[in-house]
Amino acid sequence: MLFRQLFDAESSTYTYLLADERTREALLIDTVREQVERDLNLLKELGLTLHYVLDTHLHADHVTGAGLLRQRTGARAVAGKKGAPCVDLRLGQGDVLELGEVKLEVLETPGHTDDSVSYRVGKRVFTGDALLVRSAGRTDFQNGDAGQLYDSITGVLFELPDDTEVYPGHDYKGHTASTIGEERRFNARAANRDRAAFVQLMGNLNLPPPRKLKEAVPANLACGLTADPRPDAPTT
Ligand SMILES: [Fe+2]
Q: How far away, in angstroms, is 40 Cα from ligand 1 center?
């Protein structure tokens, strides 16, 4: 399987490219609207055909590139069962998406948002903001629920084998990946903490709202196909 981790420095978002090396069919997870040209160039250079653009959840901190990529390539936009209304395909717990030899399984991991899912592909799991390297996504907006997030992390993700590689939706400290075993031991929010203590911790983070909250949520409900107020915005 061809696998790439891409990064958007402005929003600290990771985008993942997965493709079957033989059939050249590809999918992207958690794209960023401002990086659509980068992603299209990479697909072209590598001779890949984009079939699916997946989001792990309705993002509040960046605008998805799913709608633009769908327009440009004919790929189908995919999300969890409670994901954005604009998507073509909604997947629930245990659903599998196949692309040649690539088999992607959906794990419902709500709590950061109520629509959050993780995608497991072989020994890798793409956790969105449910589980970050040594951290976990905030739960104070978009129907977030700290208790539900604790259950998703400890009851779903931590049940995966210890050597499963964790690929998060963001990182702000320079990490790129981790493993389930590492996070079970070292995760600063969830490791060695019971449900009540986790809920208390998440309720006292006092984080400022994401800079793009007001723009990103409505845009992402339309797969990113809304007017972009920036003067250098892509015109496609
Ligand atoms: Fe998020």
A: 23
